[in-house]
Amino acid sequence: MFKFLVGCLVLQVLESIDQWDASAEANFKLLESDALLAPRLSTVEEHGDGVLYAVGGSSDFVEQEVLPCVRYLRGLSSGLRFALMGERRLVSENRELQEFFEIVTIYEDVATMARKFVDPRVRVKSIKAYAMWLAPFERFIWLDFDSRPCSGDFAAKLFTELESRDVDALLHNQWPAHQSLLS
């Protein structure tokens, strides 16, 4: 399941198969290695519901996307628990992230093999995959930082709706490359 998840996220980087290059090939070769699989850490306890985010990439991204989202979420007064997986340099240099997220996992501490991804775009996607794989919640909603929930009770409403339909996951088919996964 984990390799499938990484593969799906890697496909987001490629809008079409025409973009396949040596970098994409090198990254997919890593998927063949069992060393990529992060063991479920015994210290990861799954409790309750929460919202999960991941951050990788540049400090500019943190300033332009992540911090405005965090400031927006503070205003929701949702009572939700929020968790973050991120690259050490991005999390450690930002007190606002450390204070907002109840649970913070440092990517480099759990994903030693995945850090070998050659393409930085793929590394960022692998951070998302590891965040989902090691999520500290029994049930969670994954959001990107460009998502803004409409109300503080958005998670409760979404979980109730999914339960009423006996559905475990809801995916957004945003990228053309995802279509091949559905057939």
Helix content: 40-55%
| Backbone shape | globular
Strand percentage: 5-15%
Mean residue pLDDT: 76
Count of discrete alpha- or pi-helical segments spanning 4 or more residues: 9
Radius of gyration: 17 Å
Strand arrangement, major sheet: 3-2-1-4
Topology order in helix (H) and strand (E) letters: HHEHEHHEHHEHH
Largest sheet: 4 strands, parallel
**End-to-end gap:** 17 Å
Structural class: alpha/beta
Question: How many runs of DSSP E, i.e. beta strands?
Answer: 4
Low-confidence residue ranges: none
Any overview of this molecule?
- The structure is a single chain.
- With 183 residues, the chain is of the alpha/beta class.
- It is 44% helix and 11% strand.
- It is built from nine helices and four strands.
- The protein has a four-stranded parallel sheet with strand order 3-2-1-4.
- Helix 3 links the parallel strand 1 and strand 2.
- Helix 1 packs antiparallel against helix 7.
- The longest helix has 16 residues.
Write the topology of this structure.
Layout: H1 2-13, H2 22-30, E1 49-55, H3 59-74, E2 82-86, H4 88-92, H5 95-100, E3 103-106, H6 107-110, H7 120-133, E4 139-142, H8 154-164, H9 179-182
Parallel strand pairs: 1-2, 1-4, 2-3
Helix pairs in contact: 1-7
